[in-house]
Specification:
Helix content: 25-40%
Radius of gyration: 19 Å
Order of helices and strands: EEEHHEEHHEEEEEHEEEHEH
Shape: globular
CATH architecture of the largest domain: 3-Layer(aba) Sandwich
CATH topology of the largest domain: Trna Endonuclease, Chain: A, domain 1
Length: 290
């Protein structure tokens, strides 16, 4: 299937015209959309530092719009190639879009996985399958929509914020049903920045421990009261296990520690391959809880 993609650029100095590729967005009208960002190359020091909070806020907002492209609660104009082209025409500031190009892929997420290491990512040492958290999240989301008939923004929510006291984090997915619902996180252990991976998992596991004691609130509907979930809310982690290569021993240690923490917090775990085998096209007649 043919998709269109745009490279997203950060231009800190419009006079000099120098830019850094920070993201890829890809999609097709009436089909799926995907996006991936890497802002690590943006200077964290000097006069550019004051622009970083605005850049990160823009990245979060844009990512949320793309990942919720088919949400029944999406505000404003729908996400289309026409809308992106209007954004490109307007973006004469520090964030700019390239002209659209075409790529043939099975899905938008697959296209982003192919393009991202070539056009954006600074270090391309990654899993042979090219999995990222964004591509895994999109894959899980699409399988749940297809196999269970869920609708984004109605009974399936992508990256909702969760709060326990003053602690706040984002889960990858929340499936709402007649009970408390189910939370899910996705993780790939085949990343370059293993120290960052370890810190992110530890922070999320701490939040899960708090949730198991106190319950939590989820921001599902903008402008409405938070959705409260009890301490025994089911949680699931869908993971891409570590494979061999540079740093594999450290990844195995992080993976083992994560499995231990998930077990202590009564979190169900399943590999991404197992999840796809269960909810993929051959198993679409099987409907139930994930």
């Amino acid at each position: 299937m043919s998709y269109q993609y745009w490279v997203i650029r950060y231009v800190p100095n419009l006079v000099r015209g120098e830019f850094t590729n920070i993201g890829i967005v890809c999609g097709r009208d009436g089909k799926d959309w995907a996006v991936e960002f890497d802002t690590r190359a943006v200077d964290n020091h000097g006069p550019l530092g004051r622009n970083l909070p605005q850049l990160q806020a823009w990245v979060r907002n844009f990512s949320g719009r793309v990942e919720n492209f088919d949400s029944v609660q999406l505000e404003g104009d729908p996400l289309t190639t026409g809308w992106l082209e209007r954004q490109r025409a307007r973006q004469a500031n520090s964030i700019q879009f390239s002209e659209p190009r075409s790529i043939v892929a099975a899905s938008a997420a697959e296209a982003v996985s192919l393009l991202y290491p070539l056009l954006v990512e600074r270090d391309v040492s990654r899993s042979p399958r090219g999995l990222t958290r964004a591509s895994m999240r999109a894959g899980v989301r699409d399988l749940l929509k297809t196999s269970l008939g869920l609708v984004v923004g109605r009974d399936l929510f992508v990256q909702p914020y969760a709060s326990v006291g003053r602690q706040r984090t984002r889960f990858d997915l929340f499936q709402q049903d007649h009970s408390a619902g189910q939370l899910a996180q996705v993780w790939t252990f085949n990343v370059v920045k293993v120290d960052s991976l370890e810190q992110d998992i530890q922070a999320t596991n701490y939040f899960m421990t708090r949730l198991r004691h106190d319950g939590a609130s989820l921001d599902l509907h903008p402008g409405k009261a938070p959705h409260l979930i009890p301490a025994d809310t089911p949680m699931r982690v869908i993971y891409d296990p570590p494979v061999g290569g540079s740093g594999s021993a450290q990844r195995e240690d992080i993976f083992g520690a994560a499995l231990e923490a998930w077990d202590l917090n009564d979190v169900t775990t399943v590999s991404y391959d197992e999840f796809r085998a269960k909810y993929g096209p051959r198993e679409q007649e099987t409907v139930g809880s994930y």
